[in-house]
Amino acid sequence: MSVLFNASLPVVPLRSIVAMPFVLLSFDIGRPGNIAAIDAAVNSDNRIIIVCQKDPRSSDMSRHNLFETGCVCRITKIIKLPEGNTRIFVEGVSRARIDEYVSEAPYLEARFTELGDYPCAFDEASTLRQMISRKFREFTFGNGKTPVKNVVDSIELIPDDIRYVYSVANVVMLQFEDRQKFIEQEDQSARCLHLLTVMKREAEFAKLTQKIDADVRAQIDKNQKEYFLREQIRAIRKELGENEQTEADEFREKLEKKKLPDEVRERISREIERFSTLPAGSHEMPSMRAFIECMLDLPFTEASEDNLDIDNARAVLNRDHYGLEKVKERVLEHLAVARLTGKVNGQIICFVGPPGVGKTSISSSIAEALGRRFVRMSLGGIKDEAEIRGHRRTYIGAMPGRIIAAMRTAGTINPVLLFDEIDKLAKDYQGDPAAAMLEVLDSAQNFAFRDHFLEMPYDLSKVMFITTANSLYDIPDPLRDRMEIIEVPSYLANEKVQIALRHLIPKQLEKHGLKKTQLSIPASAVEDMVSEYTREAGVRSLERCIASVCRKAACDIASGKTRIRITKAKLHEYLGVPKYIDDTIEKAPAVGVVNGLAWTAVGGSTMQIEVAALPGSGQLQLTGKLGDVMQESAKTAITCIRAHADKLGLAADFVKNTDIHIHVPEGAVPKDGPSAGISILTAVSSALCGIPVKPLLAMTGEITLRGRVLPIGGLREKLLAALRAGIKEVLIPETNRKDLEEVPADIIEKLSIVFVRTSDEVLKNALLTYPVPAKGGKPDPVTNDAPVILPGMDPVRAPAAGA
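The structure assignment produced for this chain is given below.
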């Protein structure tokens, strides 16, 4: 409530200081405005208005930065200090509300309203004073200190309730926000309630502080105890002559020597400190030790210098491998780009091909050519995602994943990592490891690969990833999309001979302790091994045959012989009866028998398709462990034949009284795919008409209901299989003409390749007679209008069908 109006008084703004009525206060001033205000007050009635600034960090003394409520104070003493400062002693008189500033220079001057303080009702005042007194005697500051006892006793003797409350508030309230809010309260009861609130808050804070201090003190005592015990253990070890250095000290030494990014160093240092404070036998110690050792072994800045010499790379690749021109070309392209740009980015390459063609060994040669470390990791049979990403350290026996383990083995941030057999990844309830590989093999993500064991990002962007697979179709689409696919084809017979002479035979001679003068294996013997004892896309079986020959020769040399030369007879003596002969292919025209061509994960192969047409009730039997797609191809071929029955001289309803049995030998081997369509069509047509199929002929292609021949895959492997089996002529779809560019000229020169578009062209080139005349008529001569590639003819320039 207002009690008195004054003309004006000088205003002294202070930072974080709030004056209160009936309270003594001292402060230092140095700002010119405040010094001028003090001088003006001394020359008048020694009274000033002290107002607190809203922002104590600001030097702004304008009205906008000052609270509206302050305190009228009387100057009691002034002391001049060195460096131009002045210490002022004042006593609070009354609260005041600023009404208007009348001057801002040379000092602030304002008109004000003096605010009176009126006591509460007797009962309320007595109750509030008792509550404040009880709290005040028990009061403890947040730092654990209590007010001086003499000060408390002197304040408790103040008879006036208003002066008592101001005195207690001056001692208890340390924050200027609380003091400002206190003097802004209009009545005594509100100020008392605010004072009680602040005292309760400070008391709770004091309890919490004391608890934290007690916990810290207990921990310090525990650490000191452990320190003294460790020092005693160290002294005991010294007396026993044992190593005084602890594991934590060894880790610190390794950390000091290792170059690491700041955040990684800080993380490892923090873990080492935690490790050093763990008590012996703690369950956290093994996992923490494994983590620290892993982090200290992992490369973060260590990198090998890339050898970008293209001639050297070409020499290394040609030295270790024969053929594989596409693979070598891709590696040399990578080196050329890196040499021109000066940047060697990580690559993700997938070699797809049959077993034994050199996918793994060429990867090792790539690493040698680049001058990088090489680490191989087999993915076959992995079915747990944790094998890739690692285990979380909450589990006992947790370990990092195979990716981090491989980087740890490599010791550099830019090795060549080989993921072998990526198409053999399994999947079960524990997770999908192929999905975990998506982050690893994605150049947009692998710069921050997260292993569950490390719990921090790790950079894999400089790694050259190479994966191998036997079948491209067993790799999930998202994973396949992240890799550059390079097909590693099957070897030709002459390539196998050269590989054996250049690599396999010297390797096995050295392995068995034989010299070239003791055992001679000529090229003719190797050719016999390839044709009579192996039927494979690669050279693993060939290497086993050579190893068997070396073992037999070693026995003979150990028995007294000095020199052995492998002839055909000697080869049969060492390896036994030939496993593969050419009699499986029909040499003479046969009815209902056609040689088909198939592609498998181990290369191409030939398969005979046999058909028998018998009197019956229109039943269709399919045997030979045929898959769903192949069974559908057989049904499609029969429907196509029914649609063109007139050209075969068959009645339109021949199916009603004819049973057809289609069989593919080697019934224990599963078979599937649509590429046997024209083979089944030809075999069924031959069986129904009784017309033989041309000898030494093979074919591949998908058939439709309208008789169109659709393209197939694996053409190179299929033609190679036909050549191995002694086939002379092959029918392939016209739409596969472009794929002949990928087929070696050696194969094309030895085969007569015929392109076909329709079932008519297939039957014209396969059956000895087509079209088939009606019963009693004469057969038309065979006219082959489809283009034929004869030995020595360029397949690209071969005339189109019907030209």
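Interim note for the steering committee: The chain is about 40% helix and 20% strand. The radius of gyration is 48 Å.
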